[in-house]
Write a structure and sequence with these properties.
The complex is a heterodimer of chains A (235) and B (297). Chain A has 235 residues and is an alpha/beta fold. In chain A, helix 3 packs parallel to helix 6. Chain A is globular. Chain B has a single domain, classed as ABC transporter involved in vitamin B12 uptake, BtuC (Orthogonal Bundle), CATH 1.10.3470. In chain B, strands 1-4 form a two-stranded antiparallel ribbon. In chain B, strands 2-3 form a two-stranded antiparallel sheet. In chain B, helix 1 runs parallel beside helix 6, helix 1 packs antiparallel against helix 9 and helix 6 packs across helix 7. The longest helix of chain B is centred in the N-terminal third of the chain and has 32 residues. Chain B is globular. At the A-B interface, helix 2 and helix 3 of A face helix 7 and helix 8 of B.
Chain lengths: 235, 297
């Protein structure tokens, strides 16, 4: 079943086109990756899907419903969560407060259970639950951002460069959790420059260049293309 | 030299004034924390509160507690309307538009009160029990002073617990840190802003009653100095900081009263000048205020 459908979306920063005529779909249960060089428009695409940016043309559908003009908070309540690049955690709040805010719109009694689940995924967060989030290391902040997004019980999780700036060991830890999250049935749209990781986890991938999609397919097949190999694997 | 009783008397007066400034500063700093708006209309809510209490208590002869509650409710409703009509459409635009609007709203409210009430000041009447004089070891005070102090402390404690432990309070702090991140976790920023305005306005309205009870008279332009004092307290404490606002309020009240109390006769006229001198000194020595950090709440 189609969970997300982006149809002919154009996004501008003033007069500069950041994304042009972009169409993509994400099916339920998939991990879909969006790769591309810096400035290709990947983050802009994610921000448009969550409602932080408004497209100038095109439509976005979530579970068949047109959400193009809904605000970011409404989309979050519908089950779309973004872990933005740079994490955007609340640095003046404690780890626990950050996680509780992830479940801000939830009224069900299972919030505490989910909090325990997050602590079991990231034991370090439990250890540091009363610590101010701004004092965490980069890797811990990334885990907190991921944990906060999961607390909303998202149907679609958007991850923007989850490995950026992290030590290789931490990257593996983050990806271990991403695969675990996927196993519990959460659909993931992943923006990533670390193509090796993409090949390992993604079911499908899109390649973006200067605001446009240039290629798509199963990662192993896309990576056979000479141009892609040269650009992302150095030959 | 000054006696211990005299010093204690001045300190008590300072703390009572300080608690009023702290309450006003609290409302102003919350709105600033979220919208980055110095809400100059905040002072006008003091006038609204004072006149609402006065009208209901004196003209309609409602019970004191009911009159105070009504002033608070009217203040809260006006706070809500100000956000809905005045500010909501301007959010996301230049901050200076919000600032100018808040000045416009202040002028509008002040003149509406002038038209509805009178340009002349009114002698403020509060219940007889508040006017009762007490003398503890030579320090003289009225029940109203204790009432103001206790009510302020109750509001501050309740608000602190709300902001620290309730989900909405945490959401308020989160929104103050980053509106974008708050929206990403599903916080309705409009709801948080409305809450800040309603709370700030309701508390300002209660302060209006306190102001009247302390000075013994109310006038259509009383909100101007109240708003300026709140602003000074916010800046001294560190703009956007909640504990800073409370600290700034008490410091301002104490310094204002003590400087007048200990300066030679004739200097009491310079009470407000001293306040601004203090503001200039703080800005020179610590531009972010005592507890202020860059863009933190």
């Amino acid at each position: 079943m189609q969970l997300l459908k982006v149809n002919g979306v154009h996004v501008y920063y003033g007069v500069i086109a950041a994304v042009s005529d972009l169409s993509l779909t994400v099916d339920e249960g998939q991990i879909v990756a969006l790769v591309g060089a810096n400035g290709a428009g990947k983050s802009t695409t994610l921000k448009t899907i969550v409602g932080l940016l408004r497209p100038r043309a095109g439509k976005i559908f979530f579970r068949g419903k047109d959400i193009t003009w809904l605000g970011a908070d409404r989309r979050a309540r519908m089950g779309i969560a973004l872990v933005p690049e740079g994490r955007h955690i609340f640095t003046t709040l404690s780890v626990r407060e950050n996680l509780i805010l992830g479940a801000y719109h939830r009224r069900d009694p299972e919030v505490c259970k989910d909090l325990d689940w997050i602590y079991s995924l990231f034991p370090i967060l439990q250890e540091r639950r009363n610590q101010i989030a701004g004092t965490l290391s980069g890797g811990e902040q990334q885990m907190l951002a991921l944990g906060r997004a999961l607390m909303s019980r998202p149907k679609l999780l958007l991850l923007d460069e989850p490995s950026l700036g992290l030590a290789p060991l931490v990257v593996h830890e983050v990806y271990r959790v991403i695969q675990q999250i996927h196993k519990v049935g959460i659909t993931i749209l992943l923006v990533e420059q670390n193509v090796n990781m993409v090949i390992r986890v993604a079911d499908y991938m899109y390649v973006m260049e200067t605001g446009r999609l240039t290629m798509e397919g199963v990662p192993q097949e896309v990576m056979r293309e000479e141009a892609i190999k040269r650009a992302y694997l150095g030959g | 030299m000054f006696s211990g009783v005299y010093i204690a008397q001045q300190c008590l007066n300072g703390v009572v004034f300080g608690s009023m400034y702290a309450l006003l500063a609290l409302g102003m700093t919350i709105v600033y924390g979220i919208l980055r708006l110095i809400n100059f209309a905040h002072g006008a809510l003091v006038t609204v509160g004072a006149f609402t209490f006065f009208g209901i208590f004196v003209i309609f002869k409602w019970h004191f507690a009911l009159s105070l509650g009504a002033a608070m409710v009217v203040g809260g409703i006006i706070g809500y309307l100000l956000d809905l009509v005045g500010y909501r459409k301007l959010r996301g635009g230049p901050e200076v538009s919000l600032l100018i609007t808040s000045l416009g709203i202040y002028i509008l409210l002040e003149n509406m009160i002038k038209l509805l009430a009178s340009p002349q000041p009114y002698a403020f009447r509060s219940p007889a029990f508040l006017a009762q004089l007490h003398n503890v070891a030579g320090v003289v005070f009225r029940t109203a002073d204790i009432f103001i102090l206790l009510l302020s402390l109750v509001v501050m404690v309740v608000f602190t617990f709300f902001v620290k432990y309730s989900k909405l309070g945490i959401a308020m702090r989160a929104t103050a840190e980053s509106v974008e991140a708050a929206r990403l976790v599903g916080i309705s920023v409009d709801q948080v802003v409305v809450l800040a305005f309603v709370f700030g306005a309701a508390v300002a309205a209660i302060t209006g009653f306190m102001w009247g009870a302390k000075y013994g008279q109310i006038s259509y332009d009383m909100g101007f100095m109240a708003g300026v004092k709140a602003f000074v307290a916010v800046v001294i404490g560190g703009i956007g900081s909640i504990p800073g606002a409370v600290l700034g309020g008490f410091l301002l009240g104490l310094l204002e009263t003590l400087s007048v109390g200990f300066l030679p006769t004739g200097f009491s006229e310079y009470r407000d000048a001293i306040v601004f001198l203090l503001l200039i000194l703080v800005l020179l020595l610590r531009p972010t205020g005592i507890m202020g950090r860059k863009e933190a709440m």
